[in-house]
Hints:
Blueprint: H1 6-13, H2 17-31, E1 36-46, H3 75-87, E2 92-97, H4 106-120, E3 124-128, H5 134-143, E4 147-149, H6 156-162, H7 168-180, E5 184-186, E6 189-191, H8 197-208, E7 216-221, H9 238-251, E8 256-259, H10 268-276, E9 279-284, H11 296-306, E10 309-310, H12 314-319
Parallel strand pairs: 1-2, 1-9, 1-10, 2-3, 3-4, 4-5, 6-7, 7-8, 8-9
Residues 50, 52, 54, 57, 59-60, 98, 100, 130 line the site of iron/sulfur cluster.
Amino acid sequence: MKTWSKEEILEVYNTPLIELVAKAGEIHKQFHKIGEVQVSSLLSIKTGGCPEDCAYCPQAARYNTDVKVHKLMDVKEVSECADNAKIGGASRMCLGAAWREVRDNKDFDKVLDMVKVINSKGLEVCATLGMVTEDQAKKLADAGLYAYNHNLDTSEENYNNIISTRNYDDRLNTIKNVRKAGLTVCSGGIIGMGEKVEDRIGMLHTLSILRPQPESVPINALVPVEGTPMENQPPVPIWDMVRMIATARIVLPHTAVRLSAGRLNMSMEGQALCFLAGANSIFAGEKLLTTPNPLYNQDMDMFKILGLTPKKSVAEKVEA
Length: 320
Ligand code: SAM
Ligand code: DTB
Ligand code: SF4
């Protein structure tokens, strides 16, 4: 596995666009099935009221947003959502909680039960619950969790401008704990927060030098939400998204690169370029965690028009 320097990654990012997409497409073809896109479903199991101050996030308690605070959902409700996600063609389900960190209490036991139930339906289960210890990550793994999402979000240098209630090392530590527990790692970030190109590169560099590299890297375009410090950020140009995805594909050849938040502002043509550049997953369903996402039927039309096929879950592949 090549160890990329920041300078090399920047050079990749700045490659003339068509050449960059072609290069990324070659790598994509080598390690993935062209046109195969994983459909993932997102569910916010505990919404809002978060003590952290992530400047992009509508769920931080300190910002005055329209998000309705909701305590942890019931296992039964979550199980029904998983059934619907499966009917809709999802092979992975990600549970999100607006927590700073996991605590060893009844709520955590409930999350473990949710993981067990969803896993038993043959879906890959991912969770994003904030910081976790190795012991907690092990409990999640034992319950059948497949992946843990914990985003770096931006570069180490830019981190303090976006979040002040924790630091980059906290983030990297949780990723280490997740790895030690034998879970797969999902970690990516957001573009469009006013960061420099160097910050995008810095984030990709940190992800690319992890060993093993993360199995999953979500690339989010900021969804600016009223009431957050980022409410007036201009939309991310599609070309930046394409460059970011192509660069991620090249420096993380085996990784699932997820075209995550922000698709509502992207045309089908724009998204097609992202798939050509190596994106091989989307979040489907009309809501991400708290913000809108394209309608399910629109995405299915896109799959038809572009000739995309939904990827099966790891569990379904074992059965086949
Ligand atoms: N509280 C946990 C944490 O921060 O790790 C998990 C939930 S948090 C909402 C998961 C991720 O959602 C964040 O790391 C961030 O990348 C993404 N996110 C949150 N708000 C966003 C927004 N407005 N636009 C794009 N991505 C966003
Ligand atoms: C990720 O990187 N993006 C997803 C998932 N991981 C959990 C979340 C996007 C959230 C967008 C803002 C919202 O809907 O609240
Ligand atoms: Fe809380 Fe996560 Fe939102 Fe930060 S991103 S405010 S930790 S829910």
